[in-house]
Specification:
Blueprint (H helix, E strand, L loop, with lengths): L15 H7 L9 E8 L5 E2 L7 E3 L1 H14 L3 E7 L18 H11 L5 E6 L21 H18 L3 E4 L6 H11 L6 E8 L6 H7 L20 H12 L4 E5 L5 H11 L3 E5 L1 H12 L5 H15 L3 E4 L2 H9 L1
Parallel strand pairs: 1-3, 1-4, 1-10, 4-5, 5-6, 6-7, 7-8, 8-9, 9-10
Antiparallel strand pairs: 2-3
This protein binds ligand PBG.
Amino acid sequence: MSHYPALRLRRTRSSAWSRRMYAETVLTPADLIWPLFVTEGDAEEPIATLPGVSRWPVNGIVARAKEAEALGIPCVALFPNTPSHLRTDDGREAFNPDNLMCRTIRAIKESGVNVGVLTDVALDPYTSHGHDGLVDGAGYVLNDETASVLVDQALVQAEAGADIVAPSDMMDGRVGLIRGALEANGHSNVQIMAYAAKYASGFYGPFRDAVGSRGLLKGDKKTYQMDPANAEEALREVALDLAEGADSVMVKPGLPYLDIILRVKSEFQVPVFAYQVSGEYAMIEAAVAAGAGERDALVLETLMAFKRAGCSGVLTYHAAHAARLLNG
Ligand code: PBG
């Protein structure tokens, strides 16, 4: 092996064309999934802890979906802010075929826009206690009872036209149950993107404001979401979700868990997605507001990191901004 001065790794970095030629990883708008928040209200509602992100009424969501298509973003992810009078202990609004989520899915599909619609399967925007599932008298989130409600929720979403259902609740066994129900009901081409390794994280705060569950949440989610100390357990979660029929798996949050993304990709060679979550978005925006960093550079660098670690794509609130930058 040759050494300095015969070998100088700076040579290939010395001009822009050469840096482009040697780039090992590419980031394009096709790598982005844009999470959108829906409101029952009739006007845009800015979210204080997510500066630059708003909840939109159904027609505003259709407009965002058209914007996504024009920018080359292949898919949008929907999250509803359910009106408080419809939030109940059992979260039954989740499987109302005319709920805000289903009406939004139908509006996007009826508009003829050519983007995928990914829907969240979990009960937290629908429960009066803010948990992702049904709770017993002691406040424990019940697994099997919750999973059967999630099946009903996934089915109404698929019926409304969802292309990808994404269970984000971390109940055991729900991927297989949802896959079985989709197959039995004529939805064999509806994909499942499993939130396979989802950690009990401090980075979800602004999201909970956006869907209106923060003030309602009793306790934490540590009995169902994963312990940030664990990596082998993430591999077991991924193995199970794949065995149960997941088309792709997600790691969430994003940057603090790049090691998990890399290990999942090397172990399974399946499509892996990352969710750069609300707290990560807020951190970048706070750095920009404080003059500590420059938005465009921070956004593109963090998104590239996910691609380098092995992701097929990233859910990010910066999707539209990043796509504009990438489209130059
Ligand atoms: C809940 C859900 C959460 C997010 C997506 N789905 C929050 C939670 O688990 O409390 C977080 C996304 C984000 O922070 O951007 N089913």
